[in-house]
Amino acid sequence: MFVSSALALPATAASWVGYMNVFFNDGGSKGGFVFSQGWPVADLKTTVTNDNPGTIIGDQLVLQPNFNAYTDNPGDSFWRDNAGAGPGGNKWMEADTYVETNPLAVTSYTLQGTVDANDLDTSLYTAEAFIKVLNPSAGFATVLNDRITLPTDGPFVVTSDLSLYQGMILQAGFTMNGLNANIVNEAALGSVAVTLVPEPSSAGCLLGIGALFAVMGRRRKGA
What we know:
The chain has a single domain (about 5-215), classed as Jelly Rolls, CATH 2.60.120. It is about 5% helix and about 45% strand. It contains 3 helices and 13 strands. It has helices at about 70, 185-190, 205; strands spanning about 5-10, 15-25, 30-40, 45-50, 60-65, 90-100, 110-120, 125-135, 140-150, 155-160, 170-180, 190-195, 210-215.
């Protein structure tokens, strides 16, 4: 099913989109692809606070491992290990929280911010910032995928040359990678808190990120 809404909205907290790529659990690592679809941002589990309406600059996000796939499926061996009894998750999740511009009409983009707090269990999970371009004329194939692992604290920046991708779809945001998890382990697994800040060469793009394209189940967002 393809559901879209081309909305002339600024990149406010309400405009953040959630998308989940689900993979098999290969002994605690990423296995083969299973499915992908749009998910509510809160279900990923990402918490967004809008500090500055009309721009993503100043928005604060807290990124955590996914819990609802475990919590909502008691006894289900698809989502829970130990033949469905738990206590751990049984699918590798790539949870994307992003803003999207369609069509892309800038030649460069910078996603920049600071990590305010990070106690994520990095032996189990990885949090990344990314800039991605999808080509709708090629089955929404990912043609650019610039990403960095978020630091323990302090600044981060991702900058992409977009001159070759005009008219395509721009996405910028964050990915949480790792197994779905039992909510009883929430405190131990930790989280990453980030705040988005301006960068002179891209501030205009961030302020006018334009038409957001919310999607449900139209294509895989994986790397």
